[in-house]
Amino acid sequence: MITIKSEREIALLRQAGKIVYKTHQYLKPFIKEGITTLELDHLAEEFIRGQDATPSFKGYNGFPGSICTSINDEVVHGIPSNRKLKNGDIISIDIGACYKGYHGDSAWTYAVGKIDEEKKYLMEHTEKALYQGLEMIKAGCRVGDIGYAVETYAQKHQLGVVLELCGHGVGTNLHESPDVPNYGVAKTGPRLKEGMVIAVEPMLNIGSPDIYMLDNDWTIVTEDSRPSAHYEHTVVVTHDGYEILTGE
Ligand code: MG
Ligand code: MG
Q1: Rounded distance from Cα 232 to ligand 1 centre (Å)
Q2: Are 46 and 52 in contact (CB under 8 A)?
Q3: Which ligand is nearest to the CA of 96?
Q4: Nearest ligand, CA 197
Q5: Which ligand is nearest to the CA of 231?
Q6: Using an 8 Å Cβ cutoff, are 64 and 79 in contact?
């Protein structure tokens, strides 16, 4: 069942989303050569807790970190560690925060120092693919419309769409119905109504869309070891569009 959130719930989801956005902004200046992903994790956790919220990912199905830190060929679910960022890396940081029982969820990919043209291209077009998907959202649209828009855009730019992972509903649970795949057929799938809250999150690869999981049982990496990017916003469906909850 896809729940429709009340005004009161949307107000809380807006606050949770704002905390996630502010955590991204807080981390940005620290994303530099030499910092470890565990240091970023601690900074994020401290910041989130300072906003009267808790990191949604900490302990989620046993995940050890407060945020996910996925570098270069790591697609998602990178575990914060003593690995140091290097000039030329890209890092996808996925942040979830829970405020008064309601979650916000947003991922963004950042450049570390000077990155090559290929990584720039990947980041630019994965972010644009997110907005292509979001632009389909309004009361009455179908989940397949979103996936179709993301996939069509990615294919046009020769990027591999990760098929095994998808967006989702957001509310009192971090992951709720419906699944929001980054592929699909327009005018198919569940119909969205005003007041539904979903996270749209394309994960696109420079090379093959194929992925596998590392032995740590969490981190997903690309099969061909080429870079991957991840952009995600949590949004509420409105009468004639959508409102980004994890933005400014
Ligand atoms: Mg996320
Ligand atoms: Mg998500």
Answers
A1: 6
A2: no
A3: 1
A4: 2
A5: 1
A6: yes
- Return the C-alpha torsion angle 80, 84, 87, 91, nearest 10: 0
Length of the chain: 248
- Per-residue pLDDT tens for 182-200? 999 999 999 999 999 999 9
- 123-148 pLDDT, tens per residue? 999 999 999 999 999 999 999 999 99
Q: How far apart are the first and last CA of the chain?
A: 30
| DSSP code for 247 | -
Ligand with an atom nearest the CA of residue 106? 1
Quote the CA–CA distance of 157 and 210 in Å, as a whole number: 17
Angle made by CA atoms 202, 206, 210, in degrees to the nearest 5: 75
Closest ligand to 76 CA?
A: 1
Nearest to 232 by CA among 204, 208, 205, 195: 204
Q: How far is the CA of 24 from the centre of ligand 1 (A)?
A: 12
Distances (CA, A) of 146 to 33, 66, 70, 124, 142: 36, 29, 24, 19, 7
Residue indicated by tokens 């198919």: 188
Predicted confidence band of residue 19 (pLDDT cuts 50, 70, 90): very high
φ, ψ of residue 232 to 5 degrees: the values are -145, 135
pLDDT tens for 40-84 read 999 999 999 999 999 999 999 999 999 999 999 999 999 999 999
Distance from Cα 152 to the centre of ligand 1, integer Å: 22
CA angle, 65 then 68 then 71, to 5°: 125
